[in-house]
């Protein structure tokens, strides 16, 4: 299907794929405000973080298209909403994939975001707007991280917290010698997914291409 998109779009896809990573992933626990949910996706896309894991415990994750700016169609979203409490299921699944679970909270003294090690894959976990992370999420964490704050307010807005965390960690990751890029197969799979997002009647075009190859 690549012949159905412009050279500019193909080059743009290749350029973005070179800067995409799954070394860092973002986990959102019970976020319920569409504005915040959308702003988080936009930040993840801008910083090159491909995967977002969404835990829905009572609150349905909804976005606002005016804030999202189409970011969600370029990202890979995983939703956990089948269990009575989906937090453990989500974080255990990430641990099995080799991620360290890093809880973002102002209430511990583990480390600041600028000293968080980036050499191993890690998942940054962010809690709901009102109460932060649940006790279950804190219990599942392999480490805790804080953002610098110098005022009276106890915490940043959730979307600001994500943006600040990704700004710091992705910048250090890109300067490191850590292997953080996508594999060639991952790049190909994502490119095909993105093509399907921009080609009109993509399923029909794909079937026609497959039919030609068989003949």
What is the compact description of this entry?
By secondary structure, the protein is α/β, with parallel strands linked by helices. It has helices spanning 7-17, 34-46, 65-68, 87-96, 135-140, 158-175, 184-198, 202-214, and strands at residues 24-29, 51-55, 76-80, 100-104, 111-112, 122-126, 143-146.
Question: What does the model show?
Answer:
It is a single chain. The chain is of the alpha/beta class. The chain has two domains: 1-20 and 183-215, no CATH class; 22-180, SPOUT methyltransferase, trefoil knot domain (Alpha/beta knot, 3-Layer(aba) Sandwich), CATH 3.40.1280. The chain contains eight helices and seven strands; from the N terminus they run αβαβαβαβββαβααα. It has helices spanning 7-17, 34-46, 65-68, 87-96, 135-140, 158-175, 184-198, 202-214; strands spanning 24-29, 51-55, 76-80, 100-104, 111-112, 122-126, 143-146. A seven-stranded parallel beta sheet has the order 3-2-1-6-4-7-5, with helices on both faces. Helix 2 (34-46) runs parallel beside helix 6 (158-175).
Which secondary structure elements does this structure contain, and how are they paired or packed?
Elements (H helix, E strand, L loop, with lengths): L6 H11 L6 E6 L4 H13 L4 E5 L9 H4 L7 E5 L6 H10 L3 E5 L6 E2 L9 E5 L8 H6 L2 E4 L11 H18 L8 H15 L3 H13 L1
Parallel strand pairs: 1-2, 1-6, 2-3, 4-6, 4-7, 5-7
Helix pairs in contact: 2-6
